[in-house]
Amino acid sequence: MILAVWVPLLVPFLAAPAARRLADALPPRPAAWLLAAASTGLALCSAAALSLLTVAGALRLPYVAALGHLVTPFDAVPVAVARPAGCAAAALLALSGLALIRTARRQLGELRTARRRLAPSTGELAVVRDPGPYAYALPGRPGRIVVTTGMLRALEPAEREALFAHERAHLRGRHHLFLAAAELAAHLHPSLRSLRAPLAYALERWADEAAAGAVGDRRLAARAIGRAALAGRTAAHAPRPRAALAAVAGPVPRRVAALLDRRPSTAPLRSRGPGLIAAALLVCLCASAVSAAEAAADLHGGIETAQGEH
């Protein structure tokens, strides 16, 4: 166990850069799924490893050993390693849990506050009387597209439809859940924080492509996003919840350039580089999962031995 349990804690430092490189080579939708799945899987394996270290350290305490009905000392992990590693793992888990709870409460509070500001309506579109130009997709049941009168005045009718299609894509794709997964991963392992920005960009590009398809004009979608971003720069800070996505978020010039690129976003990958990176990332994920499972099996076996069942 003592060797296997460290693999899920170290692998993310190698897997996170590989995931970023691979996401850059993929179309937006699979890139978003890749980043969300990789960060969640690596984070869960890391949390499992910390939990196993915590249990191994706790079993060295007399009252915990008594609760576990251990008749002989638990020796699956040397005492010189079990106690300090267990204390450190328990502290990291506690700090991560508290930070995650605090972030979740803050974001849920922001979403509730944003919903209370809207007039009761059964429609998808919520127009707010505000000269400040901003718009965003507010998740919930039902999801709402929030747009101000200032933003409506800043765009032409066709551009408004492109903007609405962009925000509608966020709601239909449940993109806020992708961001929640990235936030969870970032709190569980420090190296996974670097995946939040690429994931947010992939989600915006996903919605950009959906908007371009909905209006049937990539240049129109690019113009709408660019004009909305320029209008938003002159406004005061928009009261947008952090869990809500907006068309003007992220590196807008890069997104506009991608929309104006006439090459299809779903073009097949011809280089061997992305394939090699994908293979390396898959190896990292499998190694992390297998090592966590092996460490759990070793811990279980050590407990059974200490209980005199073998």
From TrEMBL:
**Gene3D superfamilies (UniProt xref):** Metalloproteases ('zincins'), catalytic domain
Record-linked Pfam families: Peptidase_M48
Kindly list the cofactors needed. Answer: Zn(2+)
- Asked whether the keyword RNA-binding is assigned, the reply is no
Q: Which GO terms describe its molecular function?
A: metallopeptidase activity
On cofactor binding, the record's note says: Binds 1 zinc ion per subunit.
Q: Where is the Peptidase M48 domain?
A: 114-182
| The organism's place on the tree of life at top rank | Bacteria
Keywords, ordered alphabetically: Hydrolase, Membrane, Metal-binding, Metalloprotease, Protease, Transmembrane, Transmembrane helix, Zinc
* Entry's transmembrane regions: 33-59, 80-101
Q: What family does the entry list? A: Belongs to the peptidase M48 family.
Q: Which PANTHER family does the UniProt entry name for this protein?
A: POSSIBLE SENSOR-TRANSDUCER PROTEIN BLAR, SLR0241 PROTEIN
Tell me what this protein is called.
M48 family metalloprotease
Recorded source organism is: Streptomyces crystallinus
